[in-house]
SAM-dependent methyltransferase (Cupriavidus basilensis), 401 residues
Amino acid sequence: MHKGASLPLPPADALSASAALCAHIGQAIDEAGGWLGFDRYMALALYAPGLGYYSGGAAKFGRDARDGSDFITAPELSPFFARTLARQFAPLLAQGLGQVLEFGAGTGRLAADLLLALEQEGQLPERYAIVELSGELRARQQATLAARAPHLAPRVSWLDTLPGHFEGIVVGNEVLDAMPVRLFARSHGRWLERGVIRQEADAGAGETAPAFAFADRPLAAGALPEALHAVAGDHDIVTETHAEAEGFMRAVGSMLARGAAFLIDYGFPAAEYYHPQRVGGTLMCHYRHHAHPDPFLYPGLQDITAHVNFSGIAHAAADAGLTVAGFASQARFLMNAGITELLMALDPNDTRSFLPAANAVQKLLSEAEMGELFKVIALTRGLDAALPLAGFARGDRSHAL
Ligand SMILES: C[S@@+](CC[C@H](N)C(=O)[O-])C[C@H]1O[C@@H](n2cnc3c(N)ncnc32)[C@H](O)[C@@H]1O
């Protein structure tokens, strides 16, 4: 039985949208001669206009599978995430950086809560710009801002392309992990690229039979990406490379004339990412709050992600002339930036509001949840070196990148 059979079945309209996306991806495979690089598959599955997971109608963000959602992110989990970021951003805005630019703003919660918190800090940015690939999410962001921060919503605008020159703060939470990756497999000491082919329907498998399968093909001489030269040993391994995320970082770096970029995501430095014991890679899919490794389950109805290689991001940023100002676990960063003080400002005797807030903050900080796997990297240009970033005051791991 296909493993999708043990997960909740999508409603009929979602299944037909997935079938339309499969037809579109199938055509792309045919046009490419029968084999498509995994990065192209992932790009179509997530972003094909109107049909991809992020560009289509899936619920995506939410607390549990009952609302049809697939995962929860830090800004959705607790407003203390945004409020703590605001404490880090306020002194930067005070250095004359009047704008914030957010990539991939999800439901708009981070934008709304950051603006509200910066207002409280007395450091409202003149302008809050959002770059969002998905029209569906852009509409949700507008609705969230109108509901949660209507008086601040006029400061928010949506950009279709990156500005050539930007002075301000850039922020992106869980954006890098949503960028397409290439897959590579080393088998018997030989590297192959792992791509996607059509799979003939198996009459017995019913509606949950996947339309696609993995297929490995040899690499041309000299075509092995540089990051994989560092994979020690000759044991069998499957792993990813992140050209798209690194290209994105270079583009952000050349845009950022003065300011700081904060990227928050799950991942590791290269030495840990390509550690000989991590033999299965980090590709992961999220469907109705189940994490599983099958990217061919319900294309367009589930998220597909890979962890971030933060060394690659740091090197791409350095190529563009940025400085790595800090790299720390999410727990360290949030604690350094004052999340505990913010929580302690609540009345602990008011258990109805204090306990849920404390539980959510605990999830952001706990090693077993988001505290250690998630990292924060900050990349800067032209900032006052005498004012180091508070979020990295203790536990900075930039040396590991
Ligand atoms: C996992 S969601 C995170 C959403 C939100 N930041 C949050 O934390 O809830 C990933 C988001 O990244 C966006 N995204 C991916 N690549 C992007 C790019 N190159 N530019 C802007 N947004 C991008 C997706 O459209 C989606 O909104």
Remarks:
- The CA atoms of residues 85 and 225 lie 35 Å apart.
- The chain has one domain: 11-400.
- Residues 12-31 form the longest helix (20 residues).
- The longest strand covers residues 256-268.
